[in-house]
Structure prediction request, 272 residues.
Amino acid sequence: MKNILITGCSSGIGYDTAHFLHNNGYKVYASARKKEDVQRLQNEGLDTYLLDVTKPQDIQDVLNDIIDKDGKLYALFNNAGYGQPGAVEDISTQALKEQFETNLFGLHELTYQTLKIMRKQGYGRILQHSSVLGIISLRFRGAYNASKYAIEGLCDTLRLELIDTQIYISTINTGPVQSDFRKNATMMFKKNVNYNNSVWINEYKTELLARKEDKEKDIFTKNSDVVIKNIVHALKAKKPHPRYYNTLATHLLGGFKRILSTHLLDKLLVKI
Prediction:
């Protein structure tokens, strides 16, 4: 039985993917950083780990335990992450560091340690959850954009370095999907941005706060099925795709990035 470690399984894509794969023949190790989420996942029948990806020792302990149990690790889905909204001029360096600690450095540490296992066994799949915002940029998403652009660079480089191996790196570029992502992002915005004293106060109220729930219902927001089908392909295909676009928004904006000049693309993106 093929096994897979998935991070960020408390809700959304990680949660749905863990259950889908568990119900379709994979041995899933679902991880989350909060004890209550781990307990809930256990109660739902999943093998679980308490894992904070910002703690290298936690990662090492989890990987060691998986190898002790199974002797192998077929796949890793680096899914853990969060959004830190706010204009770049309103994001402190500390808030930016915290964004990178989870979205990039945690992802890298888990990849770094997992590659040692996969090199030894001679095969494996690593799925890195990026975003449509790793392809294009939007206002008030600078910290998140930067963390996802960095993932793109690491993944592109890793593919080149692993090109003659049976270890495959796939980047998952996801657009808006129904989850707790926006709710959690709003919480981080209120925590780290002094928005009442910002020059962007009006835009924040109309674009980041008042419209949050409405955006959950727009035509571009899909359920996690659109992502899961690509994850399954990345796990099963003899040669998985290096990149998977998920949702119409990702396909449209990714296409615009390729065909429009920077000037025209900026005019489009500033209206989104």
The radius of gyration is 19 Å.
